[in-house]
Design brief:
The chain is mainly alpha-helical. The protein has five helices and no strands. It has helices at residues 3-10, 13-25, 31-48, 75-113, 118-154. The longest helix has 39 residues, at 75-113. 0% of the residues are buried.
Length: 155
């Protein structure tokens, strides 16, 4: 057996506490002095690791203003740009939905090619989604009823 393993087997917190208590009970005129020096040394070591506190004013941030729009736009111009942006967002959403549907159709074809009942899987998924939606609606209704009761009780 290695020396390290033997050393670890001999370590015991219970034995360490009993040894310390035995040494502390022995009549020694310097035990309070030794305890004070040990405490001061421990405090000094920990104090050296404390960061020095140097309060300093934070630097004033530099702010860069970026103007996306002309400062003197009319309401009509603002509404036209909003409508244009909404059309762009709708197109992006439609493209994303097309990609999702394309991906689903590819997975359907793959499932059919490997012999899976894709239609049954879609029905199960739809049923699970409907159940989750119903549960979410029930939770919302319950919270709404609780809020209405709390308002009525508070009046």
């Amino acid at each position: 057996m290695s020396i390290f393993r033997t050393f670890l087997q001999n370590l015991s917190p219970k034995r360490a506490v009993s040894d310390f208590a035995g040494q502390w009970r022995r009549p020694n005129p310097y035990r309070w002095h030794i305890l004070g020096v040990a405490g001061a040394a421990t405090f000094a070591i920990f104090y050296t690791f404390l960061p020095e506190d140097q309060p300093m004013e934070p630097e004033r941030p530099e702010v860069d203003y970026i103007e996306f729009f002309e400062p003197g736009r009319t309401d009509e111009q603002i509404m036209a740009s909003n409508i244009e942006n909404q059309k762009r967002q709708d197109e992006l959403r439609a493209e994303a939905e097309e990609r999702v549907e394309l991906r689903k159709s590819l997975y359907r074809e793959l499932g059919r090619a490997t012999g899976l009942d894709v239609d049954e899987m879609e029905r199960e998924l739809a049923a699970e989604e409907a159940a989750e939606k119903a549960a979410k609606q029930q939770r919302l209704d319950a919270r709404r009823r609780d809020a209405e009761r709390a308002l009525l009780d508070g009046q």
